[in-house]
Amino acid sequence: CPPANQERFANGKLVTVQFHPSAQVVMTAGHDRSVSLFQVKNFSLNPKIQSIYLESFPIYKAHFSVDGEQVIATGTHHSMFFVYDMMAGSIIPIPKVRGVEEKFLRNFELSPDGSFMLLIGTSGYLHLLSMKTKELISTMKVNGRCTASAFTPDSSKIYSYSKEGEVFIWDVRSRKSLHKFEDEGSLEGKCIAVSKNNQYVACGSSSGVVNLYTTDACLKE
């Protein structure tokens, strides 16, 4: 297959490559401050649909919304983020979320039901936003520094992984901590994922080890 982005190679590091949830489209985004969309065709040219340029905004992470109508993009050294509305063709800056006091907003997760955006802040703070209004609903806090989070497939719970190797489980509705456990042998928590059938949780640490747990055990032991 030819390169997906052959009609516009990035001038800097790519940080995101993601397929559209329903269309034959792939998105690339990176440090050259651009988000590009390409149509994916089998064994032929992958024509560029469009590129948007965010001035003075090297991208840290970009993600399609669940309905595929928006792209959310955070920067490497910014407290703001951008929403690209693909239906309207407009770029909407979100300069400041009221109640969120963060110097940088980089990492985030979107809930599978499309209702929430979770901003992973510094000093262990997790900011839950309404995906519709981009306004703050509530803030949660883990011990230490949170490095990664993941929603369960039904969007009812959040698993947050700290740099110190602890995993905190939150109830989305009440924003209360349900349980926490220590990831066995973790030197430094890096990434976490919940399986689509909600049976397993995978925790990856800087040692290169990925530990797999059943969600039943995570909630009890």
Structure in a nutshell:
This protein has one helix spanning 215-220, and strands at 14-19, 25-30, 34-39, 48-53, 59-64, 70-75, 81-85, 90-94, 108-110, 116-120, 125-130, 136-141, 146-151, 157-162, 166-171, 177-182, 189-194, 200-205, 210-214. It has 221 residues and is an all-beta fold. The strands form 5 sheets. Strands 1-2-3-4 form a 4-stranded antiparallel sheet, with no helix packed on it.
Describe the model.
This protein is mostly beta strands and about 220 residues long. About 5% of the residues lie in helices and about 50% in strands. It has one helix at about 215-220, and strands at about 15-20, 25-30, 35-40, 50-55, 60-65, 70-75, 80-85, 90-95, 110, 115-120, 125-130, 135-140, 145-150, 155-160, 165-170, 175-180, 190-195, 200-205, 210-215. Strand 10 (about 115-120) and strand 11 form a beta hairpin. The termini are far apart. The relative contact order is 0.09. The mean pLDDT is about 95.
Summarize the helices and strands and which ones pair or pack.
Elements: E1 14-19, E2 25-30, E3 34-39, E4 48-53, E5 59-64, E6 70-75, E7 81-85, E8 90-94, E9 108-110, E10 116-120, E11 125-130, E12 136-141, E13 146-151, E14 157-162, E15 166-171, E16 177-182, E17 189-194, E18 200-205, E19 210-214, H1 215-220
Antiparallel strand pairs: 1-2, 2-3, 3-4, 5-6, 6-7, 7-8, 9-10, 10-11, 11-12, 13-14, 14-15, 15-16, 17-18, 18-19
Family: Belongs to the WD repeat UTP18 family.
Subcellular location: Nucleus, Nucleolus
WD repeats: 150-180
